[in-house]
Request: fold
Amino acid sequence: MKPNLRNRRDFIKATTLAAASLPFIGAWSPVVRAAESGRKLGVALVGLGSLSTNQIAPALQKTNYCKLAGIVTGTPAKAKKWKVRHNLPDNSVYSYETMEQMADNPDIDIVYVVTPNALHAEHTIKAAKAGKHVLCEKPMEVSPEKCQQMIDACKAADRMLAVGYRLHFDPNHIECIRLAREKVFGNLNMIQAEYGFRIGQKQWRLDRALSGGGPLMDVGIYALQATRYISGEEPVSVSAVATNSDPVKFKDIEESIAWQLKFPGGVIATCNTTYNFNGFDRLRAFADRGWFELAPAYGYGGIQGKRSDNKWTPIAGIDQFAVEMDDFAQCILEKRPTKVPGEEGLRDLKIMMAIYEAAKTGKTISLT
Amino acid sequence: MKPNLRNRRDFIKATTLAAASLPFIGAWSPVVRAAESGRKLGVALVGLGSLSTNQIAPALQKTNYCKLAGIVTGTPAKAKKWKVRHNLPDNSVYSYETMEQMADNPDIDIVYVVTPNALHAEHTIKAAKAGKHVLCEKPMEVSPEKCQQMIDACKAADRMLAVGYRLHFDPNHIECIRLAREKVFGNLNMIQAEYGFRIGQKQWRLDRALSGGGPLMDVGIYALQATRYISGEEPVSVSAVATNSDPVKFKDIEESIAWQLKFPGGVIATCNTTYNFNGFDRLRAFADRGWFELAPAYGYGGIQGKRSDNKWTPIAGIDQFAVEMDDFAQCILEKRPTKVPGEEGLRDLKIMMAIYEAAKTGKTISLT
Reply:
C-alpha cells in the first residue's frame, strides 16, 4: 500500500501519477524547475468579487511561480482599493473596456477569469487576443458552443487555456483517484456525489442570463467532475429529475436536481445538487471489497476522508488555488499540458446540457 | 419539541401518531386491550429458513399477544427439530401439501408466510381459505397481479392481510416520520435511501423464478418504503439505471440498481441497492432548514440517528418482529386496520415493476 500524501514532493508525485492514469490527460514532459529562473509569472485577475478577494488574492501570496500583476474591474472604487493594497502600478489596472491593452503589458503572463459564467468567453477571448494564457473559473461558460470558441481563440493565439478545477489539485481527491485506479478495494461499482447549499437572495447566480443555470452549473459541477475523475471514464448516458419549490426565488433556474450517470465499465453514479438547503457535501465510491468517501468533500479546506477498512490517514490541507495557479504556471514554463484544459470544461458543459435535457424531457440522454 | 421514544408507552403513542398522519393508513379504532382476555393469538410459520429460525421464532418468545402455534415445512428433519424445540403438538405440524388442514386447527389464528417471494401468493391464499389471518414477508409477491390475488383471497375469506414491513414499527423510523410530518426542519426537499450487501452464492434469492428480481425486491424495497413513508406521498414518476458486472452470478437478476423518484409535493428521492458490495445502509432526508438521517438504517438492530442540529437522542432498540407481530395481533383482536396492509405491498410491487421498466427502457415511467 502506498503512503498517504504528507509533503509537497509526495503530493506532486501523486498528482503526476493520477494525471497519467486519467484518459483525458496528456503525459507530462520532463520537469525543468522554472522557478529556478527566479521569475514568477504575472497573473491578472478579471473580476474582483468574493472569490478573487477572499481566495485567489490571498492564494497568490502563497504561490511559488505566480504573483498578482494586474486587475480588471468595472468598479473604480475596487480598482483604487486593490491598487493600493497590492501595490500595483497604474498601467496594470484595467476596465473591461480597456483590457485588450494588456497586450502591451509584459508583466502579465496569465489572465485568471473570475467573472460571472456567461462572461467567461468574452474575457477569455480578449485575454487570448492580448497574448495571455488563460485560467478560467468553472463552469467554463454557459454553453458548449461558447466553450469551443474559447478553446479556438486560445489555440489561434497559441496560448494555454485551463479551467479552475481546484479539486484536481487537492490531495484528498488525488488520494481517492489513487484508491480507484489502483483498485485498492477492487473494481468500482457505484459513486455517489452531492454538493449544494442554501443560497442567499440577489446574486448573479440566480440570474440565468449570467449564470446559465442553477446549482448544477455552480456546485453540482464538482459532483459531476468527481464521478468522472474517480471512475476515470466518460459517462455514456444520463437521467435526471429537477424540482423547484420556490419559483419566485428560482424563477428561471433549477432549485435542486438529481442525476444518474452510467459509465462504460458498468459504474453507476448518482448525484445531487441544490440551492435550497445545506448539508450536501459528500463523495462516496463503492467497490467490490470496500468503499471510500470524502465528507465534507468539496470545500476550500476541511475535507475529511474515510475508508471501509479504517485505514484513511488524515491528509494536511493545501491552498487549492495556490497549487492550481502554480501548476498552471509550471505547465506554461515547462510547456507541458495541464490536466484541466479547456476541453475538460467543454466536456462538463456538454454533460450538464444533457442533464438539463434529461430533467426536462424525462428521457435518458445518450452521451455517446 | 417532542421527547424521543424511550419506553413502550411512548412508542405505541408515536406509532399511532405516525400512522394517523400517513395518507394510506386508516384511523385506529378505540383500543380495547385484548391481552386482558388472557389469550395469545396462535401464529403458524410457513417456511423455516434463516429468518424464521433466527429472527421470528425468537421474537415470538417476546410477544405479548402472539405465540408459536404451528409450522409448515417441506423438510421432515426441520419439522422434527422444531416440534421438539418448541413443544408443538403433532396436529400443528404441516407440509405445504397439508397446510389446508389448518382450517380444523383453532389454535392457529395467524399464518406468517416466510417462503421465497414467488410462493407467497400460493401460501397466503391457502391460509386465507383455511380461515386464517395472514402476515406475509416482503416483498409481498413477484408481480402486482399476484399481490391482487392475495388481497382478493383474504377479502373473500374475511381475513386480515398484512405485509412484514418491520421498519414501520421501528422507533427510529417512526421518529424520522415525526420529524418529516411535523416539519421540524421545514419542508422536505430530498430523500436519499440506500440498502444493499454482497450476497453469497447458491441462494434462492439469485433465482429469478423464486425471487422475482434482485436486490431491489429483497432490500431495495426498504429504501423505496422509506422514501414513501418519510415523504408521506406516493411517487409520480421514476427513472432508473441498472448494472451487472457479473452476469454469471447475476444471470437473470440485476446486480445493482439506482433509481430516482419524484413526489407530487416536489420532493425528489434518490435510491440505490446492490447485491455486489457492502456499505449501503443509509437514509437521509433534507429539508429547508436542516436534515436528519439513519445510518445504519435498515438492520434488525443497531440503527443510529443523527440530526443537523445535533439534537437526536439515541433510541433504545426493540425487537422489530415482536412489535410487528403484536401489532398485527392487536389489529385482529381490536378489529382495526393495520398500517401495513396488502394494498401497501401491492403499491411497492407496482413501483418496483416501473423501476425495472425505467432501467430497461431508459425512460422516465409515470406512476400516476
Summary: Residues 1-36 of chain B have pLDDT under 50 and may be disordered. Chain B has two domains: 31-166, 171-317+339-366.
